Amino acid sequence: MSKLSGLGGRLYRGETSIDFIEKRRRWYAFSGILIIASAFALSFQGLHLGIEFKGGSSFTVSKSAISVADANAAVTESKIPGEVIVQQLGTNKVRVQTGALSTVQSNAIQDSLAKKFGVSVDAIDTQIVGPSWGKEITRKALYGLFGFLIVVLAYLAMAFEPKMAIAAIIAVIHDVFITVGIYALVGFDVTPATVIGFLTILGYSLYDTVVVFDKVRENTRTITSTSKMTYSQAANLAVNQTLVRSFNTSLIALMPVGSILFVGAGLLGAGTLKDLSLALFIGLATGTYSSIFIATPILARLREHEPAMQALAKRVALRSAAPVAAAPVAVSANGATAAKRGPRNQPKRNRRR
Asked: How many whole angstroms separate alpha carbon 264 and alpha carbon 253?
């Protein structure tokens, strides 16, 4: 048996325990730092919305040995106003994104790119997105996000209990906000693929949280009748029992996503993959973290305020403080103590008359 499986067995049986619940202030502080950093990134840098959301024009040129420097030079020669984003996609493709352009401006940049790279104007893939269409996409994305949260909140409240639903939604909001903040800090464009990634991480975060909560429910089903441990102690045991499972599941999920992000988008230059892979990679990591360090401590805190759980905590404390009954002791002549013994029964002797 490997060391990890041996540790998992000890955690499951309660022989080894990591105190996640009592140390919740540490986890809250760490999450608070990440949330503040995300808020600063969103305030000062903001999200770089793709043309699908804000509208604009996109020009993609395919040719071997193409470079971003040549594309920037072509854009400069066309004298296009406003912010222009130039990205290299792989080794033989470059994409130029601009704001809303008139027909004359669009033709000018196409001619400049065709002249710089020696291709025909028809070979340039041109996409024009109006601002109204971009607003419609943004509105639908927000509707999908809020609709998802409402449906999940209702399901968790019916399948488990309302306080579990509240803790799970707080953890999900925590994950999304940190992911969006890191996205703003890195400066990647927000595209429809990014929205798909955000919705995916919502599902994964809830999946891991539901697994932990299911074990918490199992451990606390008859907790008020046994009085062996408090709700927080039972919840902490549940987290320890599912810890190795969460770690293994998250590691297996992060490995292919990390390959897409670092190998596909980083080394091979597949720029179309980085929007989705970055959102997935950050979201999977924060989802695993929040299900263990955020959702369960919040749930325990909410339940410990209930009168029944407060009475249970008092009973457990009294039971732990009860003195253990000891055997009566006697003091010998030399001052040593010895356990007091009862009368010794000797066998009777038969006397001859």
From this structure: 16
